[in-house]
């Protein structure tokens, strides 16, 4: 197995939620010599040095200061998102249904619900805990299955294979145990849900010390390489983009331009969070990098005008079982190169200016690219690309790994396309 593919699989398996993904990214950056910055502190930056700023535990921006001032060298940015469609728990709500213990949930983003049924699910996320008079963050990952969402037997729903709409409130609560009859003289359970008592027990804390939490189900099955050519894994949209960016970013040398690696949260739900692409997170960071060099007030605007950006997010790949859903001329195929994505309504940021970036960088990297445009009668999803372009004014290119089963619990890409994405990003940063 190619080492970059192994790193991708390991990264995904270590990142069941955005919180663990950012924690893994931090570890990689620290190992490469990056220094953590505090947004509340004064920044003293050195040319050629690596830094990163974490926000909210689920977003991170890393940068290598350019060898020239930002207004002269500009910025080279690449961005992806740390979140993926998922099922989030409402752990405070306990459902005792005829002796079954079930977990209330809601959908995060637009997940394909059917794939979440009838498979063992783990629980992971971030928990705020009051300990010794202060509030700390505790990451939680269940390393064993904790729940399952069972289907109805086909004998009771003969039309299920003809199409069935799952109701999140009624059909999707997850089964995680059976109500245990209380023994004689046994004291009643404390006023907290059974799932919170179990999680608190694993963390060796009291349930009442939990202040808040963000917990999500995840597929506990490991990521797989099939036939040495296909990567099948959960959350490839967009952890594959994150993995490609961080690998390219830490492997290149310092350049005249300041190199930026952005890992935003909440893309699947509109990016409207403090660490999302819709926030001031990126523009404020670029401003502080420029201000740290003690130049004139116009230097940020000069730097932005001298910059380029690549948005990395998954692209729809041709599905041979549904050829009628694609435009043959503009649909990428797994294993034939990364996709350059465009859309007349700017759901993707690629335009006549930023398309030049793709041509120049692909030639420099020695790789082939493919084009993706949705059928004229269909509108594709959106990415962080148009948001970044509109908020910074930087020409932004949208590229992605061609991917099958987007937003399913497990998705599939070609291993060779991931290697090409890393080559592309290395050439871009260089």
Give the low-pLDDT segments.
none
> What is the molecular shape?
globular
Could you name the CATH class of the largest domain?
A: Alpha Beta
The second-level CATH architecture of the largest domain is 3-Layer(aba) Sandwich
Helix percentage: 10-25%
Distance linking N and C termini: 26 Å
DSSP helix count?
10
Average pLDDT for all residues: 93
Number of domains: 2
The CATH superfamily of the largest domain is known as Zn peptidases
Summary keywords:
430 residues; alpha/beta; Aminopeptidase; Aminopeptidase i, Domain 2; nine-stranded mixed beta sheet; three-stranded antiparallel beta sheet; globular
Task: Describe the overall structure.
β7 (121-131) and β8 form a beta hairpin. This protein has two domains: 3-84 and 234-429, Zn peptidases (Aminopeptidase); 86-219, Aminopeptidase i, Domain 2 (Roll), CATH 2.30.250.10. The protein has helices at residues 3-13, 18-31, 70-73, 194-203, 236-251, 281-291, 299-304, 355-365, 384-392, 415-429, and strands at residues 35-36, 50-55, 59-64, 75-81, 86-97, 100-108, 121-131, 134-141, 174-178, 210-219, 224-226, 230-233, 258-264, 308-312, 315-316, 338-341, 369-372, 396-400, 402-403, 411-414. The strands form five sheets. The protein has a nine-stranded mixed β-sheet, sandwiched between helices. Strands 5-6-9 form a three-stranded antiparallel β-sheet, covered by helices on one side. The radius of gyration is 23 Å and the shape is globular. The two termini are 26 Å apart. It has 430 residues and is α/β, with parallel strands linked by helices. α1 (3-13) packs across α5 (236-251) and α8 (355-365) crosses α10. Helix content is 25%, strand content 27%.
